[in-house]
Amino acid sequence: MTEIDTSPLVLHGRRRSVARLRAGVVLLETGGVRHRIPVAAITRVDTTGPGGRVLTVVVATTPTDPVTCSYSLTSRSAPAVQAFAEAVRRALPVRDADEPRPQVSAEPVERTGPHLGYAILGALLLTYVLVAVVLVNRGAGDQAVVYWLAGPMLTGAGSTVLPGAVRTVREAVVLRRRGITVEGRREGSYEVGAGEDAVTHHTYAYVDALGNARTRSGRQGGADEVDILYDPEDPEGTTKVGHRTAGHLALGLFRLVLGSATVSAGLWAMGVGAVALLR
């Protein structure tokens, strides 16, 4: 087993599907079945679908066999799909033209019971619907019903904003306090997504204060040479293009206030509905 035969990447997809590369075998779990796909049996690996979020592994029994079989996994993250596809491509061996290819095997996957999180979510949704029905039947008024129905939506919307806002504020504060600025050189650019939704990402190479070569990828930048501000305690995870952090901090605070206000409004609306229910 070599380094390219195994990858630490784990690609998660829809309906609890997951793909791993272990000891020269792609382990693809989907639909309650675990497929063991030897890399020696793989003809090619494609990234397709909207935004490149579909991993497709094409397999043939022999190099000259026109009949191929494909295995797919759809993920929410296009970069994750691209990274996993590249890891599998690096592991593909060089084969002779008439070399037979190993077979793909499959086995059922034992599934545990529903995840606790799904059970809690189901109970909350059921409570949400039942309370709305009770409010309507008791004639609590259209206003109370609307407040109850809108409350969880506002709370959920605000909750999706808060984690990213907290992370942005934390990054800005950390970089302001202990960030180190170095020169970065653009190695290349690539697009994530397709059509009008495509977003250009840039990859910069830089050398940190200890002499270690590192890279930074993201939407920021575009020039051939930029300043890279990084956290010496997390040089791969906490970085930004440019040495100023005021804008980064302002964006994080704005999102934090917006998310907190939305969550508060949602909780208040749910409280109005709950009071109407208890009357």
Description:
By secondary structure, the chain is an alpha+beta fold. The protein is built from four helices and 13 strands. Strands 1-2-3-4-8 form a five-stranded antiparallel beta sheet, with helices on one face. The chain has a five-stranded antiparallel beta sheet with strand order 11-10-9-12-13. Strand 12 (225-231) and strand 13 form a beta hairpin. Helix 2 packs antiparallel against helix 3 and helix 3 runs antiparallel to helix 4 (246-278). The chain is flat, with a radius of gyration of 25 Å. The N and C termini lie far apart (69 Å). The mean pLDDT is 84.
Q: For the terminal residues, how far apart are their CA atoms?
A: 69 Å
The helical percent reads: 25-40%
The oligomeric status of these chains comes to: single chain
What's the order of the H and E elements?
Answer: EEEEEEEHEHHEEEEEH
Essential attributes:
alpha+beta; 38% helix; 5-stranded antiparallel sheet; 4 helices
Question: Can you describe this structure in just a few lines?
Answer:
The protein has helices at 78-91, 116-137, 142-178, 246-278; strands spanning 10-12, 18-22, 25-30, 33-38, 42-48, 54-60, 68-74, 105-108, 180-192, 199-207, 213-218, 225-231, 234-241. It has 279 residues and is α+β, with helices and mostly antiparallel strands.
Layout: helices, strands, pairs:
Blueprint: E1 10-12, E2 18-22, E3 25-30, E4 33-38, E5 42-48, E6 54-60, E7 68-74, H1 78-91, E8 105-108, H2 116-137, H3 142-178, E9 180-192, E10 199-207, E11 213-218, E12 225-231, E13 234-241, H4 246-278
Antiparallel strand pairs: 1-2, 2-3, 3-4, 4-8, 5-6, 6-7, 9-10, 9-12, 10-11, 12-13
Helix pairs in contact: 2-3, 3-4
